[in-house]
Amino acid sequence: MLARRCRIRLRFVGEGRVLRADRRGEWSSRHMEQQITTFVETERASGMNLKTIVHFGAGALGRGMVVPLLFESGYEVVVLDTNEELNRELNREGGYRLKLSDDQSGDGEREIRIREALSPVADRDRVAEYLKSANVVTTSVRRENLVHVARALAETWGELDGENRMVICCENIENVGSLFRSLLVEAAASEEQSARLRRIAVPDTIVDRICTANWPEGTNVVAETFHECSVDANEAPQTGITLIPSVARIERDFARKRLLLNTYADAISFLAKGEGKTYLFEAARSDDINRMIEPYMALLQEMLKLEYDCDSSELQEWRSKYKSRLSNSGIPRELDTVARNLWAKLDLNERFAWPLIKLQEHGVDIGEGAKFLAKLVRTADGEGQSAAELQAKLEGLWGTTPAGRKLCELVSERLGE
Length: 417
Ligand SMILES: NC(=O)C1=CN([C@@H]2O[C@H](COP(=O)(O)OP(=O)(O)OC[C@H]3O[C@@H](n4cnc5c(N)ncnc54)[C@H](O)[C@@H]3O)[C@@H](O)[C@H]2O)C=CC1
Ligand SMILES: O=P(O)(O)OC[C@H]1O[C@](O)(CO)[C@@H](O)[C@@H]1O
Fold this sequence. Notes:
By secondary structure, this protein is α/β, with parallel strands linked by helices. It has 17 helices and twelve strands. The site of 6-O-phosphono-beta-D-fructofuranose has 9 residues, from helix 9.
């Protein structure tokens, strides 16, 4: 029986690698996903010893996407969050409910069970025990908190062999693999620890699902059926996690998702917040806002064609898919949870400026893009600040390279409009 189960598992894991969002963002095999879920449920019911993954960050994306994908791939999940109140609630229930707002089957609710929720600060010793026996750690804590995860991990994994260990940072961060690896190495207490930590696989990732958590009202999360969650096959040829596949062209896929989804969602959210709106879906549904952003979006598409050889019809399909997902009023995601960290997102290597810098290199006229960024900065941070003050901030951020200075000039000219 065990041998048969193992054979089935291998077959699913093998097929799982081809599971990915297609051009329209649909699962290439929703049927297969259901089969995996049924198989995992049978395995769980049989009392088989499931492997444990430790996940840092039980916020919106953690509870809305990462933990469910691990759970539905057949893992037991230990959740670590610094919010002890939240941990207490999750432990009391042994998990939480995930509502997929656009799931047509049944009531769209799923029960996600977790093994235990702990604090990496208050429950340090118990956490260290789990970390010692885990081969895979996942995170969704936000960029500013990754340094603390790296320190916690370095303490335990720094003393163990790094071979066959992997950290999957499910964060919305470009090149998150090298970022987290450098945080790990900085956290090493000795040369020996540093050498061990360098052997850990830390792939780049793509994470996408619109999720909203309504803590402290409850532990439940509302999300959507769509998800894209994959890692760089060059760093991790196989994850062993059925619903988190390794993909070959992560740079291109990341750029497509970054610009057409994140840049778009963030920009419309900052504008909608400025208009006094409350929810993300209101921003995506606003004709005025969509009209305002269109010339900038056209430039982003141009950049994806020039830099990544994407074709127009593919990009158009993704754009309409993203717009319709973001317009879903079944997910009451507040604008504040999207329109955050404006100045970090305006960095030269980040979602707003980076595509325009690339287009300049290709000799494309970025005037419309500069006009839009000026509008964005004025709306999101203009209150009580003069054009000169905003210009000084942009100079501080972009003045370090010739292309950045050129962009700064173009945007600054429009700040007074
Ligand atoms: N919410 C969403 O729909 C999406 C979020 N993301 C990405 O997911 C990541 C997390 O974002 P959200 O879930 O929205 O944020 P969130 O604020 O809802 O969740 C973050 C969670 O991490 C916990 N945390 C902070 N420091 C910690 C530490 N040192 N150890 C353990 N837990 C810690 C917080 O208490 C909180 O519960 C971000 O990188 C974001 O870009 C990406 C796509 C969509
Ligand atoms: O603000 P962050 O940390 O990039 O993460 C939230 C992300 O979630 C999204 O709303 C997509 O669900 C992005 O547009 C946004 O950037």
